[in-house]
Task: inverse folding
């Protein structure tokens, strides 16, 4: 068991109170670390440290920031085993998923290293003779980041790397279920040479101190990943103070299998899309629509493959399913499955538990009176539905409050492109899983799945502010309006 402290101004800082909480290993709910329960005072100390560091280092040359990020990528690559161990033991990540996170983090840092030299504006023709007109992108100041438990490394790196790359300071409030990843990130940025105060961590329950962080008058931008309910609340706080913000929220992502699809390819993609990290992924394909002529064939093949999804040693590469993160979330998964059973759904596979692990579960005959029909389960549970036409499945896929990711399997490119154009989702994949990300793409959703986009290009919108500058020649007259 390890004891953590807040990371403020480049040093471990004790909490303003003696209150600590337990960070549990979800395999057996044993205590993994003891974590300070931060207060509004702790948040204020972190934001003030970030603000002062920003004022001191805001004019740091792009080449220096590039060097920090390049070093961070090398350190991350060196320490992948350390980060992977934390992901396995703290959040119950199978080693294959932990490997995905660490590889993505290295790649994102390398991509972000190129950002400092791309924070540029443009010259603009002026209507006034003799006036030189240009636009600049300048850092916003202090960026607040709130990360989820399921991909704490990916989100922690995404948020902090872009804040640092664009000349800002950063304050991180990690999920109370994954604080150790944040502690390791603090070490990474320190070793990479990032000046004290540009990266800070405050631990605690988001329900208790989240508003203190997002509503702090010296926080200029917010980047949040979590539930739609909390995201809407953060949007209200940001709107009241006119802060920039990006929200990456929940999903109920559809995966469509047309009659002309490669069934084996679709089955494998569906397995990955919903059962990777035991379904605790916002892009999870929790709704699978299969064209009626192949519905029975797909259902049989998918159910058989699902039964082979392995629960076991998290450090064994073939293990696909690990523990559900908390008792609260386990109860949610149980409730969704039990409610569907009680109301007449067929369980084609799964629905059973081994300790804190739920087996990969496939439902058929789900109707709109069942909780699982519309709500995000955030577990290894998906439902199969038949459809008869492309227009019908587009309507079904869009009939949700969410709009994060969607995919379609078909050999008909016209059909695929029509679906891509009409799908109400921020991301659409053709003949590929719903679950995918790259550092430089505009990642995010619409409707209740989010607001704004993440990525090395998209993040410039919240991490920088446009400024228009004009210069009138001294002998050219005042001009203007």
Result:
């Amino acid at each position: 068991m390890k004891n953590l402290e807040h990371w403020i101004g480049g040093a471990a800082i004790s909490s303003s109170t003696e209150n600590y909480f337990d960070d549990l290993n979800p395999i057996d709910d044993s205590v993994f670390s003891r974590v300070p329960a931060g207060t509004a005072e702790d948040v204020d100390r972190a934001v003030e440290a970030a603000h002062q560091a920003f004022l001191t280092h805001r004019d740091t040359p792009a080449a220096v920031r590039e060097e920090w990020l390049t070093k961070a990528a090398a350190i991350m690559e060196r320490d992948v085993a350390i980060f992977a161990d934390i992901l396995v033991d703290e959040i119950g990540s199978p080693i294959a998923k932990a490997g995905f996170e660490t590889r993505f983090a290295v790649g994102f840092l390398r991509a972000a290293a190129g950002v400092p030299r791309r924070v540029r504006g443009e010259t603009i023709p002026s209507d006034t003779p003799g006036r030189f007109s240009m636009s600049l992108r300048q850092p916003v100041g202090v960026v607040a980041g709130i990360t989820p438990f399921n991909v704490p490394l990916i989100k922690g790196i995404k948020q902090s790397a872009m804040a640092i790359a664009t000349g800002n300071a950063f304050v991180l409030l990690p999920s109370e279920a994954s604080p150790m990843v944040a502690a390791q990130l603090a070490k990474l940025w320190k070793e990479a040479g990032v000046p004290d105060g540009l990266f800070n961590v405050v631990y605690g329950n988001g329900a208790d101190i989240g508003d203190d962080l997002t509503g702090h008058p010296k926080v200029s931008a917010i980047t949040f990943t979590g539930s739609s309910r909390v995201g809407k609340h953060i949007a209200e706080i940001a709107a009241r103070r006119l802060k920039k913000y990006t929200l990456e929220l929940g999903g109920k992502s559809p995966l469509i299998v047309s009659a002309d699809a490669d069934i084996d390819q679709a089955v494998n993609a569906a397995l990955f899309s919903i059962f990777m990290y035991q379904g605790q992924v916002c892009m999870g394909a929790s709704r699978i629509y299969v064209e009626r002529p192949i519905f029975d064939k797909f259902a049989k093949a998918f159910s058989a493959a699902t039964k082979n999804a392995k629960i076991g040693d998290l450090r064994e590469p073939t293990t696909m399913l690990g523990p559900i993160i908390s008792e609260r979330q386990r109860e949610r998964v149980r409730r969704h499955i039990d409610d569907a059973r009680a109301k007449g759904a067929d369980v084609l596979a799964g629905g059973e538990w081994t300790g804190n692990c739920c087996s990969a579960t496939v439902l058929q005959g789900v109707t709109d009176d069942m909780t699982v029909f519309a709500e995000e389960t955030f577990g290894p549970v998906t439902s199969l539905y038949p459809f008869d036409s492309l227009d019908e499945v587009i309507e079904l896929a869009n009939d949700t409050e969410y709009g994060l990711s969607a995919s379609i399997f078909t050999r008909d490119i016209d059909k695929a492109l029509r679906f891509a154009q009409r799908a109400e989702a921020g991301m659409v994949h053709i003949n590929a899983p719903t679950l995918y990300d790259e550092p430089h793409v505009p990642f995010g959703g619409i409707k209740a799945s989010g607001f704004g986009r993440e990525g090395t290009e998209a993040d410039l919108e919240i991490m920088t502010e446009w400024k228009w500058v004009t210069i009138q020649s001294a002998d050219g007259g005042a001009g203007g309006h």
Q: What stands out?
A: The longest strand covers residues 131-139.
